[in-house]
C-alpha cells in the first residue's frame, strides 16, 4: 500500500469515516508493515492534539524512562504525554456574554475540573470555582466537582443552576451525576421532578418544554413530581436499570424503557475517562453492561468496575512504571501497596473471529494510572477486590499474555504503552486463543476539595 493511501485510511479511521472494506485493508496493512504501524501511532497522536485545539504552550516534564523502552519509541511516548496533558488541561473556547452567575460574589460550592470543546455564555476555565447561580453551557462537555464529592458532567446546550452544596437545578440539557456515600441526599430539580439521590450514578435530561427523563445507572434515586396537583402522591424509588419520564405540570411519572443513549457522551467523563480513540469504546452505563454480560466483537470495550476502593492488602500487578511492554508475563513480580484508594476499569477485546488482525486504541484517564494487571492469575486474584460487583468473570485463559507459541510471522502482537504522565494508555492487540483483558487501576483520592 502506498504511504499516502495508508495515511488517508488512518485519518478516516480516526475520524470514524472508514468503510468496512477499507478497515479490513488497513488492518491487513498494519499487521504486515512496521512502517505503517509507526505511521498509525504518529497520526493517532497528531489527531488527538489537533482535536484538543490547544491555546496554551507547555514544557513536557523530564521523565526517566525504564529500560524496556527502545530508543526508537521515545518520540511516541512524548507525544502521548503531550496529548494527555492537553486533554486534562480542558482546552475549550469561549465567548464573553454575561450570564446570571458570579462566582466572585458567592462562596465557592463547586469547581470546573474538565472541559471538552466547551463554550459558555460566560468564559470559564479549568480550575474555576463557582458559587450559587446559573451556568449556561452552549456546547460541549464540562465536569464539575462539588466540595462534598459529588461529580456532575453537563452536556451542552444546558442551563444548570447551583443552589447549594447539596442542591442544584437542571432547567434544560443533559447531565450525569455520581454521588458518593458521603453526599447521599444530593438533589437535582427539574421543571417536572425532584430527584433525590440515595447513593448512585444517574442521568437526567430535560427538554426545552420541561419534559424530564431520569435513568439510574447504579444504585437508586427517589423522585417526586413538581406539579401542585400531585398532592399526597408518594415519592417513587427508581433503581438501576430503570428510566422514568415526567412532563412539566403533570403529576404522572411514567416508567419507560431503560435509556442510555442521551448520556453516552457525558457518562465516560463523569466516570473518569477523558477520551478514547481508535477502536476503544466506553460501554453504555447500566446493569446489563458489565463484564460477562455484554460482548462486543468489534471494539476494545472499556468497563468501569469499582470506585473508591481502599486497598487493605497488596495487589499483585504486571506494570507499575511507564514504558512499552510486549511480553508482560516476563516482567518481574510487582505489587501495589496497601492504603491506596483506587478505582478500576477492565479493557476487553473478545472478537468472534479469532483470525482477526490486530486492533489499536488509546484511552486517557483523569487521574494517574497506578498499575496494570494483564495476566490470567493476577486478574483472577483481583476480581473480588477490583472487579465489578455484578460482573461474571471467566476463570479460563484471559489477559494479554503472549501465546504459548507465536504464530509464524506474527510474534509479540500484543503491545501496551503506558505514557510517561501515567494517564494515557495505548493498546495494540491481536486476537488469540485467550480473552484479551487488562485491568487498569487508577488513583482515586478523597473526592472532596478545599474551598
Your description of this structure?
There is one protein chain. The chain is of the alpha+beta class and 451 residues long. The protein has 3 domains: 3-88, no CATH class; 110-263, Jelly Rolls, CATH 2.60.120.1440; 272-443, no CATH class. Helix content is 17%, strand content 35%. It contains 6 helices and 25 strands. The chain has helices at 3-14, 20-32, 34-52, 74-88, 266-270, 376-386, and strands at residues 110-120, 129-130, 133-146, 151-164, 167-178, 187-189, 193-197, 201-206, 212-218, 220-225, 236-239, 243-246, 254-256, 273-278, 280-282, 300-310, 315-317, 323-325, 334-336, 341-349, 359-365, 369-373, 415-418, 424-429, 436-443. Strands 1, 2, 3, 4, 5, 6, 7, 8, 9, 10, 11, 12 and 13 form a 13-stranded mixed beta sheet that branches. The chain has a 5-stranded antiparallel beta sheet with strand order 14-21-24-23-18. It starts with a helix and ends in an 8-residue tail after the last strand. 45% of the residues are buried.
Uncertain stretches: 51-104
Question: Nearest-angstrom radius of gyration?
Answer: 23 Å
Structural class: alpha+beta
* First-to-last CA distance: 57 Å
Form type: globular
Amino acid at each position: 500500500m502506498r504511504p499516502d493511501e495508508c495515511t488517508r485510511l488512518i485519518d478516516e479511521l480516526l475520524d470514524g469515516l472508514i468503510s468496512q472494506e477499507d478497515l479490513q485493508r488497513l488492518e491487513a496493512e498494519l499487521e504486515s508493515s512496521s512502517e505503517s504501524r509507526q505511521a498509525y501511532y504518529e497520526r493517532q497522536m497528531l489527531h488527538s492534539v489537533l482535536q484538543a485545539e490547544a491555546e496554551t504552550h507547555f514544557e513536557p516534564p523530564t521523565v526517566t524512562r525504564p529500560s524496556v523502552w527502545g530508543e526508537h519509541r521515545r518520540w511516541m511516548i512524548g507525544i502521548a504525554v503531550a496529548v494527555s496533558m492537553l486533554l486534562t488541561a480542558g482546552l475549550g473556547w469561549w465567548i464573553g456574554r454575561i450570564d446570571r452567575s458570579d462566582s466572585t460574589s458567592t462562596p465557592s460550592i463547586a469547581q470546573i475540573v474538565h472541559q471538552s470543546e466547551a463554550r459558555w455564555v460566560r468564559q470559564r476555565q479549568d480550575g474555576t470555582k463557582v458559587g450559587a447561580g446559573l451556568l449556561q453551557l452552549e456546547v460541549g462537555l464540562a465536569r464539575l466537582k462539588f466540595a462534598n464529592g459529588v461529580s456532575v458532567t453537563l452536556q451542552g446546550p444546558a442551563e444548570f443552576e447551583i443552589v447549594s452544596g447539596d442542591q442544584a437545578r437542571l432547567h434544560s440539557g443533559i447531565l450525569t451525576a455520581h454521588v458518593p456515600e458521603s453526599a447521599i441526599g444530593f438533589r437535582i430539580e427539574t421543571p417536572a421532578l425532584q430527584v433525590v439521590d440515595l447513593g448512585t450514578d444517574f442521568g437526567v435530561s430535560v427538554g426545552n418544554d420541561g419534559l424530564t427523563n431520569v435513568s439510574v445507572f447504579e444504585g437508586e434515586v427517589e423522585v417526586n413530581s413538581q406539579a401542585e396537583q400531585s398532592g399526597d402522591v408518594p415519592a417513587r424509588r427508581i433503581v438501576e436499570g430503570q428510566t422514568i419520564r415526567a412532563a412539566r405540570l403533570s403529576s404522572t411519572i411514567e416508567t419507560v424503557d431503560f435509556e442510555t443513549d442521551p448520556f453516552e457522551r457525558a457518562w465516560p467523563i463523569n466516570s473518569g475517562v477523558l477520551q478514547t480513540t481508535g477502536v476503544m469504546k466506553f460501554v453504555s452505563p447500566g446493569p446489563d453492561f458489565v463484564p460477562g454480560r455484554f460482548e462486543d466483537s468489534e471494539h476494545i470495550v472499556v468497563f468501569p468496575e469499582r470506585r473508591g476502593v481502599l486497598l487493605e492488602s497488596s495487589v499483585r500487578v504486571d506494570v507499575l512504571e511507564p514504558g512499552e511492554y510486549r511480553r508482560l508475563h516476563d516482567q518481574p513480580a510487582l505489587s501495589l501497596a496497601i492504603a491506596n484508594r483506587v478505582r478500576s476499569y477492565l479493557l476487553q477485546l473478545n472478537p468472534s473471529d479469532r483470525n482477526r488482525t490486530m486492533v489499536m486504541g488509546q484511552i486517557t484517564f483523569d487521574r494517574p494510572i497506578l498499575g496494570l494487571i494483564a495476566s490470567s492469575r493476577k486478574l483472577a486474584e483481583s476480581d473480588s477486590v477490583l472487579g465489578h460487583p455484578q460482573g461474571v468473570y471467566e476463570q479460563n485463559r484471559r489477559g494479554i499474555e503472549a501465546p504459548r507459541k507465536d504464530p509464524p510471522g506474527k510474534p509479540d502482537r500484543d503491545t501496551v504503552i503506558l505514557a510517561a504522565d501515567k494517564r494515557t494508555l495505548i493498546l495494540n492487540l491481536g486476537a488469540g486463543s485467550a480473552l484479551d483483558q487488562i485491568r487498569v487501576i487508577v488513583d482515586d483520592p478523597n473526592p472532596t476539595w478545599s474551598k
